C-alpha cells in the first residue's frame, strides 16, 4: 500500500475522531430545548452518529489493505462534512493510482462515481 494511502487513511481516522468529539461535546452542552421548537439537535445527533459509525468502520478496517479499502469506499455514505468527503475522494483517487488503472467505477449511494486518474 502506498504511503499516500496510509497518510490519507490516518488523516480520515483523525478527522472522524475529532469530528465525533466536537459533535459529542456540542450535543452534551446543547441548551435545553423548548418543547417542539428545536430542530437543530436531531441534526447534530445524526451527524455525531455518522462520525461515530464511520470512525468505527475505519478503525475496524485498519491497517488498510487495497481490498479492505475498496470495500470501505465502495459503500461509504455521503456526508455533509466537506472535509470528510474530500479525504474520501482523495483516498479513492489515490487508490486508483495505486491500482495502475486509468479509472474505474465505484458504486455509491448517489449512483456510480467514475474516477479518472489525473
Query: How much beta, percentage-wise?
Result: 5-15%
Q: Helical segment tally?
A: 4
What class, by secondary structure content? mainly alpha
Shape: elongated
Low-confidence stretches: 99-118
Strand arrangement in the largest pleated sheet: 1-2
Largest sheet: 2 strands, antiparallel
**Overall pLDDT metric:** 79
Describe the structure.
This protein has 118 residues and is mainly alpha-helical. It has one domain (3-116). Helix content is 63%, strand content 10%. The chain contains 4 helices and 2 strands; from the N terminus they run H-H-H-H-E-E. A two-stranded antiparallel sheet has the order 1-2. Strand 1 (103-108) and strand 2 (111-116) form a beta hairpin. The longest helix is centred in the N-terminal third of the chain and has 26 residues, at 3-28. The chain is elongated, with a radius of gyration of 16 Å. The two termini are 19 Å apart.
Keywords:
single chain, 118 residues, mainly alpha, 4 helices
Amino acid at each position: 500500500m502506498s504511503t499516500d494511502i496510509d497518510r490519507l487513511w490516518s488523516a480520515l481516522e483523525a478527522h472522524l475522531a475529532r469530528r465525533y468529539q466536537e459533535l459529542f461535546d456540542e450535543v452534551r452542552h446543547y441548551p435545553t430545548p423548548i418543547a417542539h421548537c428545536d430542530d437543530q439537535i436531531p441534526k447534530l445527533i445524526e451527524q455525531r452518529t455518522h462520525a461515530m459509525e464511520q470512525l468505527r468502520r475505519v478503525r475496524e478496517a485498519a491497517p488498510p489493505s487495497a481490498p479492505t479499502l475498496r470495500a470501505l469506499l465502495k459503500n461509504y455514505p455521503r456526508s455533509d462534512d466537506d472535509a470528510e468527503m474530500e479525504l474520501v475522494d482523495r483516498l479513492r483517487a489515490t487508490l486508483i493510482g495505486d491500482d495502475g488503472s486509468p479509472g474505474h467505477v465505484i458504486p455509491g449511494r448517489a449512483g456510480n462515481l467514475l474516477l479518472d486518474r489525473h
